Amino acid sequence: MTAAPARPRLVGLGRGEFADRLDEAIDIYVTAMGYPRSTLRQRRSLWLEHSYRPGWRAVGWLDERNRLTGIGYGYWGGPGQWWFEEVRRGLRARRGDPHTVGTDWLTDYFELTELHVHPGAQGSGIGEQLLRALARDAGRARMLLSTPEYGHREPGRAWRLYRRTGFRDVLREHLFTGDPRPFAVLGRELPLLPPAHGTDHPTHTPA
Ligand SMILES: CC(C)(COP(=O)(O)OP(=O)(O)OC[C@H]1O[C@@H](n2cnc3c(N)ncnc32)[C@H](O)[C@@H]1OP(=O)(O)O)[C@@H](O)C(=O)NCCC(=O)NCCS
Fold this sequence. Notes:
Low-confidence stretches: 203-207
Mean pLDDT: 91
Strand content: 15-25%
Number of helices: 6
CATH architecture: 3-Layer(aba) Sandwich
Largest sheet: 7 strands, mixed
Shape: globular
Oligomer: single chain
Distance between the termini: 27 Å
Bound molecules: coenzyme A
Order of helices and strands: EHHHEEHEHEHEE
Strand order of the largest sheet: 1-2-3-4-5-7-6
């Protein structure tokens, strides 16, 4: 007798499960972001190292065949971390800019490090579910993230998601060391407001 297909669902991932699912998770990341597969190995060791940081939490979305189709994780940010130091440098350099907040925003925060949904599963609310699950258990007063600026293109799905959930500008057009693309740093106080959709579950299953 064959087992009935499982219901697509959101799951918390402990460090061991995260390590077991790492290849799947990074595959989603390179596919969703359109990055070269040559970045896989370097990402693997970085993501594993992140999973030992204080406040680390990861969530995943499993489809009806138990395949990972969405991944999100983050941890408590603070001095000494590469991202913290890069953002603090940017904030200090732009003191007084109307799109820039004070460095006090860089305290008591959970850094949303990665959030990706496989392209075949995008567009039905999985990303928002993952974001909300991480925000619920963040254990910090605010959440911060960085995402590529959209330049002259229309803002994409990531931007719509962050704006819809109330993220505001912390630092715009920021250049992280070693990356030529400008990034926006966005943040918001926690908790998040309840979903506008009025449900905590996607209403339709992605194709
Ligand atoms: C950004 C990303 C994580 C968002 O995840 P997603 O599951 O595709 O998107 P959302 O959860 O925002 O939902 C998508 C749509 O479903 C709708 N939706 C949200 N919750 C819903 C619900 N409960 N029921 C029905 N529809 C819902 C949203 O309104 C949204 O509409 P939009 O496309 O007009 O914005 C994903 O698109 C992705 O991986 N993109 C590429 C990688 C990337 O940019 N990552 C972020 C880098 S910082």
